[in-house]
Automatic annotation (TrEMBL):
Name used for this protein in its record: Cupin domain-containing protein
Domain Cupin type-2: 39-103
Domain of life: Bacteria
Pfam families the UniProt entry points to: Cupin_2 (PF07883)
InterPro entries: Cupin_2, HNL-like_cupin, RmlC-like_jellyroll, RmlC_Cupin_sf
Organism: Microbacterium hominis
Coiled-coil ranges from the UniProt annotation: none
Gene3D superfamilies per record: Jelly Rolls
UniProt xrefs under CDD domains: cupin_HNL-like
Length: 143
């Protein structure tokens, strides 16, 4: 057993995010496991670019209102305590609603040999795509 060293909080890179985003690495892969966990904080309206995870991703919302959209236009609005899973190969983006900060744990996994290729990034989400997600969405209830 050991305490993991603290990493610095880093700004989300502009080629992967729109708006102010800050990232803390919470857990790195520890053999024999492959889990990676990041605590990601989004300013109102901030969001990721379109991306896909080879092995899927789970987002657990800890604060604020999250917007998650897939390429087919399905949009989920989720709040604290709710989790959204995107299966392997599903193109999506996620970010904060336009009126609140949002924080989530981003949980994904990939074998060490695939860490560099586990996520594929694409174009930024347009203003029109973001606005459409805010008006055409589902709000899941807690079970």
């Amino acid at each position: 057993m050991h305490i993991e060293p603290l990493g610095a909080t880093v700004p989300g890179p502009s080629n992967r995010f729109t708006g102010d985003v800050w990232v803390d690495t919470v857990a790195r892969p520890q053999p024999p496991g492959y889990a990676t966990v990041g605590l990601v904080r989004f300013a109102p309206g901030a969001r990721t670019a379109w991306h896909v995870h080879r092995h899927g991703q789970t987002l657990h919302i800890t604060q604020g209102t999250a917007v998650v959209q897939t390429r087919d236009g399905r949009t989920i609005i989720a709040g604290p305590g709710q989790s959204v899973h995107t299966p392997p190969g599903e193109w999506h983006w996620h970010g904060a609603a336009d009126d609140s900060f949002m924080e989530h744990l981003a949980i994904s996994s990939a074998p060490p040999s695939e860490q560099d290729a586990a996520v594929e990034w694409a174009a930024h989400v347009t203003t029109e795509e973001y606005a459409s997600a805010l008006t055409h969405n589902e709000r899941p209830s807690n079970p």
